[in-house]
Amino acid sequence: MSDNKNQFKKKGGLGRGLNALIAGSYEKKVDPVSAPVAAVNAIAEIPVHTVQTNPFQPRTHFDAEALEELAESIKIQGIIQPITVRKLSDDNYQLISGERRLQASKLAGLESIPAYIRQANDQQMLEMALIENIQRENLNAIEIALSYQRLLSECNLKQEELGDRVGKKRTTVTNYLRLLKLPPDIQIGLRDNKIGMGHARALINIADIDKQLEVYKRIVAEDLSVRKVEELVRQIGKENDTKPEPTKPEVSEHPQAGEIKRVESRLSTHFGTKIQVKSNAAGKGEIKIPFISVDDLNRILEILNY
């Protein structure tokens, strides 16, 4: 037992980084030629075909052109940052983080890839995958917000704990979570970089969804600045303050209309596209999931695990 301990070097804690999620993180260099089966808590070259995708992957959209560019870079320079996997059995691994690097490596025709090999249960995998993705610079605001929401709901974290885990102030976390209250069209626009975080934060302050969408369309059509949008929002607020109270409350056309809209919003956020849910008084109906290309269809099928 003591001989084995001498083979490992204890690493210092990384504070709020990924490795802080795993107590007692160790590292050991493994030569894949002399060691046919890679050791746990080590860095090793492992065959690309032995790595399964991560079922907890929080990212749902990968730019095809960016993947091609990364693949070309890998052909020339190789993999600079290893992926992270957990060992399921001998020569069988499951990805924790690094899906873009894995996909690009396959495109580049690599047979093996450097990997950190860890031991982790499903809960740890989800936390590691979410936090690793949150810390990436190219993650869009909606993906960050959804990752925060999953950490809160699926990992049973409180907002204070979440802020500590991701190294962000609680107000920052709250601002991202508020984005999920926006209509699906605006969330998709934010995801696709049609508007920025500043635009979205201003739109949240408009109580009426129709007004939100109206201003959103103006932002896209007229390329409005954040300052201009903030002025429009203040103007809308003043107009609402001067409006008289309605004499009669609005009555929903369908007794379940509110719940159906909430379901549509949740599904649209989950699939990253505008979902339509139709239902009649008898409770029968249909769900429509549109897609804009074959790649978009494949992305949706992956979410469905089809």
Task: Summarize the model shown.
This protein has 306 residues and is α/β, with parallel strands linked by helices. It has 13 helices and nine strands. It folds into three domains: 2-120, Conserved hypothetical protein from pyrococcus furiosus pfu- 392566-001, ParB domain (Alpha-Beta Complex), CATH 3.90.1530.30; 183-241, no CATH class; 258-303, no CATH class.
Describe this structure in words.
The protein has 3 domains: 119 residues, Conserved hypothetical protein from pyrococcus furiosus pfu- 392566-001, ParB domain (Alpha-Beta Complex), CATH 3.90.1530; 59 residues, no CATH class; 46 residues, no CATH class. A hairpin with a 2-residue loop joins strand 5 and strand 6. 47% of the residues lie in helices and 13% in strands. It is α/β, with parallel strands linked by helices and 306 residues long. The protein is built from 13 helices and 9 strands. The strands form 3 sheets. It has a 5-stranded mixed beta sheet with strand order 3-7-5-6-4. Helix 6 crosses helix 7 and helix 9 runs parallel beside helix 11. It is elongated and about 70 Å long. InterPro entries: Chromosome_partition/occlusion, HTH_ParB/Spo0J, ParB/RepB/Spo0J, ParB/Sulfiredoxin_sf, ParB_dimer_C, ParB_N. Keywords: Chromosome partition, DNA-binding. GO terms for molecular function: DNA binding. Belongs to the ParB family. This is ParB/RepB/Spo0J family partition protein.
